[in-house]
What we know:
Layout: H1 16-29, E1 34-37, E2 41-45, E3 49-54, E4 69-75, E5 84-91, E6 94-101, H2 109-124
Amino acid sequence: xxxxxxxxxxxxxxxxxxxxxxxxxxxxxxxxxxxxxxxxxxxxxxxxxxxxxxxxxxxxxxxxxxxxxxxxxxxxxxxxxxxxxxxxxxxxxxxxxxxxxxxxxxxxxxxxxxxxxxxxxxxxx
Length: 125
């Protein structure tokens, strides 16, 4: 992680370990990743955007854990998983999925499989 990323967590310092675990897994498992820190999200790119981390409210506030990070992936298919808080099809053949992560252990094989699938999908465009 670089110093440009730290200000993103000024309002959510407890979520920094979640992001660090996610970034470490992405950089270790996916080649040629570029990271762009923006005001509302941290985006992961290969050829195109394939995932991002944010504090998007994908559930009602009382349904969200006190410390969380939303991992968003774009896939060619809709995921059928209780882990997906919200899924939309912004255009045919592209599904955007929002997954709430509240512990480093939730950045697991299943989640990283979806992230790798999203990276492969983005690289094909």
